[in-house]
Amino acid sequence: MSHDPLHSKFSRRAVLKVALAAGAAQLSPRFLSRARAAEPVRIGFDDTLTGTYAALGKNTLVGCQLAVEQMNARGGILGRPVELVVEDSTSGDAGTAVQKASKLIERDRASFILGNVNSALSLAMAQVTSEKGVLHIVPGGHTDAVTGTSCHWNVFRVCNTTQMEANAVAGPLMKSAGKKWYYITPDYAFGHTLQAGLEKAAQRLGGVTVGADLAPLGTTDFSSYLIKAQSASPDVIIFLPQGADMINAMKQAVQFGLDKRFHLAGAQQELEALEGLPPEARVGTWVFEWYWKQPNVPHLQEFVAAVKQKTGKVPTARTWQGYAATWSCALAANGAKSLEAPKLAKALENMKLPPEIGLMPDRPFYRAGDHELMPTLYVGNAQAKGSDDEDLFHVTELVKGPDAAGSVEETGCKITWPTT
Amino acid sequence: MTQLVLFNVFNGLVVGAFYALMALGLSLILNLSGVINFAHGGFLAIAAYLAYTLIPTVGFWGGLLAAPVLTAVIGLVVERLLIRRLYGRDPLYSLLLTFGLAYVFEDATRSLWGAQSLPYPVPAWLTTPLSNRLFFLTGYRVFMVVLVGAAVTALFLVLNRTRLGMRIRAGTHDLETVSVLGINVRVLRNLNFGLGVYLAGLAGVLAAGMLGLEPTLGSSLIMPSFVAIIVGGLGSLPGTLLGGLLIGVASGVTTVFLPSATEAVMYVMMGVVLLVRPHGLLGEVGRLH
């Protein structure tokens, strides 16, 4: 049977549908205005979900998601539901990170921006968020400038600065291992500032740099660096690469037997990296930013259990950073009773995180002068396996944030507030 | 100082042997099919992850044997379904396809095995250094060099002594004539692609033992092999081998003097070779059009 196009085009059903749609459109403004009242408060997540830092970005995201679930169960932000809008910044493309941040602010009308694991992307995003006047919390980009020379009124940071980590580890390391240090440093901003920070801290204590090599980011074979490092006969070989580079460097050092001849150490170490190492290569003295297994920290076990239920694994420092950063958004809004960025920022200044969010021996707080969170730093040694399969770090010393951070003047941060 | 340089030359040869193994597979595919296989690193990573998955049931050696073969089978399927369609077109098409495939493979490994790095178990007796003085020569690295040597010898034997190998070599020189002589060029290209991917797989499993597993494993290792091919000369397998060893030594020695340039030195070498001898050290003039 042939089909009559003319009749099908104007069938009764089609006409009815159009009429119904038109009617609905007439009614919709009223629905819309009601919907606007309950419009969710949006938190824009712009972090590394693919590429080199994907594992770190994904763990950060888990913490953010858990925080949002908890907020919504407790009535949301200012009585409105909370929605996490997730974007992948890529691991190294500042253009993408900036574009996603703009999209989150303009199209999704996010009241808060979270990100980024990569220091350079954090700085680039901060340019956008400060220009557009949106509260921005950096969960895990470490380079000093974020809350130092490039600080902004709207930018707060949860993770440590590289200088804080250097200051925390230098003393204990010099005491236990000796003062002649050889550095293997990743050749980008993070590595440079971390090495400079360690040298500064070591010098104060009488330490000596016997050699330092810059390794390009993404170096897979560290053997030639290790050959050079051992020939300088240091007391300590300091490893500053991160992620896969750290794993490659440490693994090769231990295969070469260097852990038996020198003390291996560094500043920042992460559970993600230790999990990627074979047990025999989990050695050395390091700083952890947060650890899931600590005595006498209230609410810690609940948090660990909640994350384990979500992912099957214990939280890492990155999970906690995402969690604390996201909760900080709600704390700021509830403190300011507003979603206006300057009021939010003022509310966060000197705010102490409540114990169930801080999850540290000392309650961390955002320092007013530079917007840097003052947490506890955990100095200790990597271990093949503790009391638990995932207990890969043995904390030997707790350092208080303000002691490690130095003064606000030293950071070089001068906050200028917008004039309204 | 002399000792430091000597050690680094020696060590560079070890590293270079590994680059060469990766580059040989790439070179095979490029020579016969004119495809610049950007997905080579992806195949490499898949083999590494497959071996990791197989090890609990078949052990380290079983994984080393089985994973490259399984990866080669994946390679055969990919060639049959996707790459074959683009032969005879502008090489840009196959380049774009394999470039996209590299991303697909990377994200596939990430969603199947997780973004987190995983340690790759290696028998303990392989991971200790042979002597305190030559500490950078671990059992594993010596084993790797021996295996690369064996694989290269086997490859040259296959290419020179077997019917398949002769057809591949003939096809590399003049595919049209080979086709006119009644040889099924489609099958030949398919098998050749599989062989190339097998070599990538072998390199992947070896790399996993040295570096551990990471979804970005392939992309971080792929560039040196391209450089090795260009330095050695397009179309020449011995050239590729030489190129791999040379860049290994060059970046090793550079560490002694200017460590931050270890990566850059490879590209400088490539630039110099392209300027002075555009067809590469052992390549033939006008080999690839």
Describe this structure in words.
The complex is a heterodimer of chains A (420) and B (289). Chain A has 16 helices and 14 strands. The N terminus of chain A is likely disordered. Chain B is mainly alpha-helical. Chain B has a single domain, classed as ABC transporter involved in vitamin B12 uptake, BtuC (Orthogonal Bundle). In chain B, α1 crosses α8, α2 packs across α3 and α8 packs across α9. At the A-B interface, α3, β7, α8, α9 and α10 of A face α1, α7 and α9 of B.
Task: Based on the model shown, name its key terms.
heterodimer; A: 420 residues; alpha/beta; Rossmann fold; seven-stranded mixed β-sheet; 16 helices; globular; disordered N terminus; B: 289 residues; mainly alpha; ABC transporter involved in vitamin B12 uptake, BtuC; 0% strand
On the 0 to 100 scale, the average pLDDT of chain B is 90
Report how far apart the termini of chain B are.
46 Å
Strand content of chain B: under 5%
The helix tally of chain B amounts to: 10
Order of helices and strands of chain B: HHHHHHHHHH
Q: Count of helical segments of chain A? A: 16
Q: Over all CA atoms, what is the radius of gyration of chain A?
A: 25 Å
Counted beta strands of chain A = 14
Name the shape of chain B in a single word: globular
Radius of gyration of chain B: 19 Å
Which two chains form the greatest contact, residue counts included?
Answer: A-B, 41 and 46 residues
